[in-house]
Write a structure and sequence with these properties.
The strands form 2 sheets. This protein has a 5-stranded parallel beta sheet with strand order 2-5-6-1-7, sandwiched between helices. Helix 6 links the parallel strand 5 and strand 6. The radius of gyration is 27 Å and the shape is elongated. With about 400 residues, the chain is α/β, with parallel strands linked by helices. Helix 13 runs parallel beside helix 15. It is built from 15 helices and 7 strands. The two termini are about 50 Å apart. About 5% of the residues have low confidence. It has 2 domains: about 200 residues, 3-Layer(aba) Sandwich (Rossmann fold), CATH 3.40.50; about 160 residues, no CATH class. It binds zinc ion (ZN). Zinc ion binds next to helix 3.
């Protein structure tokens, strides 16, 4: 399932569902609210509610009928999702240009089917250019192909480029907003409604998606993003400013950092040289907070768990199979050392060392020294010469306590 129920907006969803069931939903809507609050999710939810087959029964969208299922996969032929894209290359004719822009849109739809929250063209200058607006206008004038209605979701409508070059396209679009064909619904979204062309604003009914209280976002972070530590979940929620999808981006980028840190630790341990271990450990401060090392250790533990699966001949049970497929499969983030695959026993010992380091971090031990000791243990295990201070043995704990 790709599309999802917008989180934490129950009151709004209930009002909308009853408006759809009672055929009171305005045909031209403007969904607005801050970045990351879930405008795309809500607009697509409205589209599903409008297309849900047993719509009159009340509880829409049912998420079970054929229509809802197609819509959830972004494959409903009468739900059209448009968004700003890079300016198209020059084309031989207007018709060719419009074809090219439609092809570009379909490429991006394929990406969104993989991940609804994928950031399209993050670094490019994008807009809803004239040719795209003409496509929307034409598609909206055609009868729906499967359902009784067609729904157009047009994202970031403030990026609609002023159309002085083609006033007739602009006028046709405004007319579409003002008097859509009886079967067409248009849902615009905008994070900056103040930047919308006034002619667009005045022709749509605004629908605000409000940011959520910090506690609600913290609950989302804990339940859906797997952040178990309450303080961390709340810190993320505060930084997200009430926007659940911004919280998701924050957690993802933190996760990216800890993945990279885990890779660096693993590479140093596999390298085995004191220099490599020293370099890796010196990235951590001697007097740091536990938050500095803990996420990297968590990521490292998952990585070792996958190595254990491979070593035990159960590669299909790995959580991140890409990393374990073979040398070069994950580029320089592969898990193999120069000496080939570490044996099962060695990985188990390394896991024990990570557990001990986690325990040390929990007692606020010096992150740099903890890392140095961890890497020493791990490389000894990988080199097949255990130090004797293995998993949770009193010696290891004793060394850690001494730090
Ligand atoms: Zn349905």
């Amino acid at each position: 399932m790709n599309a999802e129920r917008p989180w934490g907006q129950e009151d709004l969803l209930q009002r909308l569902a009853s408006a759809v069931a009672g055929r009171r939903l305005p045909q031209s809507l403007l969904v607005h609210g801050p970045e990351g609050v879930g405008k795309r999710s809500l607009a697509l939810w409205i589209a599903r509610a409008l297309q849900c087959e047993p719509a009159e029964a009340g509880d829409v969208p049912c998420e079970a009928c054929r229509s809802c299922r197609m819509a959830a996969r972004l494959e409903h032929p009468d739900i059209h999702l448009h968004f700003p894209m890079p300016r198209p290359k020059r084309a031989a004719s207007r018709a060719k240009l419009r074809e090219a822009i439609e092809a570009q849109r379909h490429e991006r739809l394929a990406l969104l089917r993989e991940d609804l929250h994928a950031r399209l063209d993050p670094d490019a200058v994008t807009g809803l250019y004239v040719a795209a607006v003409e496509n929307i206008r034409d598609q909206a004038s055609r009868r729906p192909s499967m359902a009784r209605r067609s729904v157009f979701v047009v994202e970031d409508a403030e990026r609609m480029v002023p159309q002085s070059a083609s006033p007739e396209a602009a006028n046709a679009f405004l007319k579409l907003l003002e008097e859509p064909p009886p079967f067409a619904y248009i849902v615009l979204t905008s994070g900056r409604p103040d930047a919308l062309l006034p002619t667009i604003r005045s022709r749509t009914v605004p629908l605000r998606v409000a940011p959520l209280p910090t506690e609600r976002v913290a609950a989302y972070v804990a339940e859906h993003l797997g952040v178990r530590d309450d303080d961390r979940a709340r810190a993320v929620a505060r930084r997200a400013g009430g926007a659940v999808y911004r919280a998701r981006t924050l957690v993802d980028s933190e996760a990216g950092e800890s993945e990279a840190a885990a890779d660096a630790l693993l590479a140093a341990a596999l390298d085995g040289s004191p220099q490599a271990r020293y370099r890796a450990a010196s990235r951590y401060s001697a007097r740091g907070a536990r938050g500095e090392l803990e996420p990297a250790l968590e990521a490292l533990r998952l990585r070792l768990r996958d190595m254990l699966c491979v070593a035990a001949g159960a590669a299909d049970a790995a959580l991140d199979p890409d990393r374990t497929k073979g040398p070069g499969a994950g580029g320089d983030r592969g898990v193999r050392g120069a000496g080939g695959e570490p044996a099962e026993g060695a990985v188990l010992e390394a896991l024990g060392a990570v557990d001990a380091a986690m325990e040390g971090v929990g007692r606020n031990l010096n992150p740099q020294a903890t890392t140095a000791l961890l890497l020493e243990e791990m490389s000894a295990a990988f080199a097949g010469r255990s130090t004797g201070r293995t998993a949770g043995t009193p010696q290891f704990a004793g060394v850690l306590r001494g730090l």
